[in-house]
Each structure stands twice: as C-alpha cells, then as structure tokens.
Design brief:
With 312 residues, this protein is mainly α. 78% of the residues lie in helices and 0% in strands. The longest helix has 39 residues.
Length: 312
C-alpha cells in the first residue's frame, strides 16, 4: 500500500510540473491569439476587447491559477477558435483516440507475447532467422507508412474497408471497431516486433541462469520449468517496456489518425496549433501526459507485483 501511495503521489507531482511547464511555455510564445482569430485587419479596439474576453489581459500567474483550479474540476477552459468548452470539444475525440490506442495495445499483446515465446523456443532455427529478419524490417518502418501500405493493400486492393469512411462508435460500434482495426494494426506492428524480440532475448538469458539448471536437476519437465520459472522472470522487463509502449502508442495514434482520417485528437491538435488555440493544445498535452504517467504507474505496480523485492 505504501508503495502504491508513493507512486501515486509522484504521478500527481509530475502532472503538476507538466502543467506549469505547458502553460508558461505557451504564455511566452510571441503573438496574440486574439489577432489570430480576428485577422491582421482587425482594429486595435476589437483586438483589445477580444483579448479581455479571452482573459489574456490578466497577469499570467492569475491566468495559471484560474486554469489549474479549473483543470482539477475537469474544466480546461474555453476554446479560442471554436468558442465552446474544451472539455465538451475533446470528449468524443479522446474516446476515439483511446479506443484506437487500446485496440493497438491489445493487438500488440496478443501477437507479440506468443510470437516472442515461439521465437525463443525455436532459437537459431531457420524459421527463427526468417522471423527475426521480418521483425527487423517491420521495426524499421514508421507507423504512418505502415498505415499507407495497409490502406493500399486492404482498403484499395482487397476492399476490406473504405479508406476515409470512418464509422462513429455511436452509430455502429462493430463498424467502428472494424474500421479502427487497420490503423490499430499499423500502430501495433513496430511494437510487436520490439516486444517479441525483447521477450525472446530475455527468455534466452533467463534460460541460461543457475536456477533453471537447478530446476532441471530436480526432475522438472521442460514446460514446467519454462512456464513456472523462466517466463515469469522474463516478463518483468517486458512489462516495463510494454508500459512505455502504451504511452508511445497513445502519442503515435495521433499521427496515424491522419492517414486513416480518424476524427480523434490528431486532427483538432493540428488545427489548434495553426490557429493558436492554446487552451485546446494545453488540454491535449496534459491529457497525453496523464496517460503516460498513468501507464508508468500501472507498470510500477505490476513490476512490484511480479518482483516484491522492489520497494522503493
């Protein structure tokens, strides 16, 4: 319990410092969002009136205090460009991005763990060499390029889905999941290669340790030693890597969304950057930071569960 509380407190402190860094960084950027919204032809009076309406004429410390207390309540302020609550603006989009990310991590886990075990069991065979070569190639291909290839093969050639014809989860959940499968696969492919390679390497290293030879000397069968001793220890570094991978998948999904025209956080983030819509950008960055530190917290707790020796 102490370990979990300590890690949770660390997560909260980290998020606070991220919020400070994000808010004050955008406050230091030259330019006035009111001018971006009204255009350069706007009169000084209109710019001043809109700046007052946006609260840009307040001291930066006051704006930060109001913003951070709003964030604690779940209120990220009002969008400059869309003139509506940032929370309501992002609510559907964050759900879409998270659904895509969770699909990608499920695909990665379901494929990479059995693949890594299989490659370890078939180590140095012709099949292992072939799989390792394919792994290296897939690992080197960026997710967005994998998305383009998947679109050409499964969308254009085999017509398994219609590129750009995204189906909302509100309208048809199964249709939405069917469309998101291919962008999720594009995100997961390089991660599958990394996780399976890491698991293979850790399994082989664990198999050479003294406790494994001791287990065999006691008459244990190969499967019992492998699944009862080797695999559990080999999964510890893999769990850590999977946690970092999950955070990377959430951030990477924003780019892949553009390839498949998925209306998640990616599209609105790009438009907000070009329109200097700082409340929206700050909210998205803070949400991404939250999921990163949350995934790290879950990994730390799982790591502690698998290896109780960890107590700091």
């Amino acid at each position: 319990m102490k370990y979990a509380l300590k890690k949770t407190a660390t997560m909260i402190i980290t998020l606070f410092f991220v919020s400070v860094l994000v808010f004050f960084s955008f406050s230091l950027i030259p330019g006035n969002p009111a001018i971006s919204k009204l255009g350069t032809e706007a009169t000084p009076e209109r710019i001043e009136a809109l700046s007052h309406e946006m609260g840009l004429d307040k001291p930066v410390t006051q704006r930060f205090t109001e913003w951070i207390f709003g964030v604690i309540r779940g209120d990220f302020g009002k969008s400059y460009s869309y003139s509506q609550s940032v929370t309501s603006l992002l609510s559907d989009k964050i759900k879409t991005t998270l659904l895509l990310s969770f699909m990608a991590i499920i695909i990665c886990t379901v494929i990479s763990i059995p693949l890594g075990i299989f490659m370890a069991r078939k180590s140095d065979s012709k099949l292992d060499i072939a799989l390792s070569t394919i792994n290296q190639i897939i690992m080197a291909v960026p997710s967005f390029f994998s998305g383009i290839i998947l679109t050409l093969i499964f969308g254009v050639a085999f017509k398994l889905f219609t590129p750009g014809a995204y189906v909302s989860y509100k309208t048809n959940l199964l249709g939405c999941l069917g469309y998101l499968f291919f962008p999720a696969l594009a995100i997961a492919l390089p991660k599958i290669s990394m996780v399976s390679k890491l698991l293979k390497d850790t399994v082989l290293k664990e198999s050479e340790k003294e406790y494994v030879r001791t287990a065999y000397s006691r008459g244990n069968r190969t499967k019992a030693v492998f699944y009862g001793h080797v695999l559990g220890n080999a999964l510890i570094p893999v769990i850590t890597f999977m946690g970092m991978t999950f955070a990377d998948i959430i951030a990477g999904s924003i780019i892949v969304e553009q390839v498949f025209s998925v209306p998640g956080l990616g599209r609105i983030l790009l438009s907000s950057i070009s329109g200097r819509d700082y409340p929206v950008i700050e909210a998205i960055i803070l949400l991404l930071a939250f999921f990163v530190v949350l995934s790290n917290l879950i990994v730390d707790l799982l790591y502690h569960k698998f290896d109780p020796r960890i107590h700091v």
